[in-house]
Design brief:
By secondary structure, this protein is an alpha/beta fold. Helix content is 55%, strand content 19%. The model has no long low-confidence stretch (mean pLDDT 76).
């Protein structure tokens, strides 16, 4: 009987010790995640809509978890105040012109806050300082835009289908252009005539340049064009020399 009591007491002791160890371990993990054992400082920001953000959500800076959301409170009908607890050892990296934006842990994960990078010469944030926020793009608005685009795509597809049906049935000018050989031949002949006309125009221009009455006019045009090219070349050369001169100063 005493042997059974000893075994029972030993098991009970091991059970209590294991439970206490598990409790301490869980307390340590939770405390570490919530920054209960690290020195922290407080920052504040406001949003128009926090989009499901909760107390205890992570705060990230440069992709690293640096704090948690401490409190969320409604100030008025258009402003929600959010208090952040940030690790003290990253305070020197957060500048006063940093922005706070809402993000998501993964594609459909929990909401979190992201502190963006600030300017190199900006002062470091102080305890309790307010940081400006960047309002998120709502998922509902994106889905509404996608739905409108999908509806427009369906309308365009239906219209193209009707056009192709009419073409296949032999209706419209486009079908005649594709199927009627006479129209194709006429187009080919038109292109040939245009080429001949262009060649004839070139010949007429050459004859005009050789004409006694117009030779002087064309020479003056050529001289003016050449002078324009020479002036442009001189300006470029002058600019290059000026640039070299300024560089050597």
């Amino acid at each position: 009987m005493s042997t059974h009591n000893s075994i029972f007491k030993a098991r009970l002791g091991f059970f209590i010790i294991g439970g206490l160890t598990l409790f301490v371990f869980a307390l340590f993990i939770i405390g570490k995640q919530k920054n209960l054992f690290d020195p922290v400082f407080k920052l504040t920001t406001t949003f128009y809509n926090v989009s499901g953000l909760q107390v205890g959500s992570n705060v990230r800076f440069s992709g690293i978890n640096v704090g948690t959301v401490d409190d969320i409170s409604i100030i008025n009908d258009s402003t929600v105040k959010v208090d952040l607890l940030i690790k003290k050892d990253v305070q020197r990296f957060i500048k006063s012109d940093c922005l706070v934006a809402l993000g998501t842990n993964g594609i459909i994960g929990d909401r979190l806050l992201i502190i963006t990078q600030g300017g190199h010469n900006s002062p470091i944030v102080k305890e309790g300082q307010f940081l400006a926020s960047k309002e998120p793009v709502e998922t509902d608005a994106i889905m509404a835009d996608l739905q409108i685009s999908a509806v427009n795509a369906v309308v365009i597809t239906n219209q193209l289908a009707k056009i192709m049906t009419k073409i296949n049935e032999g209706h419209g000018t486009l079908w005649r252009l594709i199927q009627d050989p006479k129209i194709a031949n006429n187009l080919d002949q038109t292109i040939v005539n245009l080429k001949k006309s262009s060649k004839g125009l070139d010949q007429n221009m050459q004859a005009a340049k050789s004409s006694f009455f117009l030779k002087g006019f064309f020479k003056n045009k050529e001289k003016a064009a050449q002078k324009k090219k020479d002036d442009a070349a001189k300006e470029r050369e002058k600019a290059v020399k000026e640039k070299i001169k300024n560089r050597n100063k």
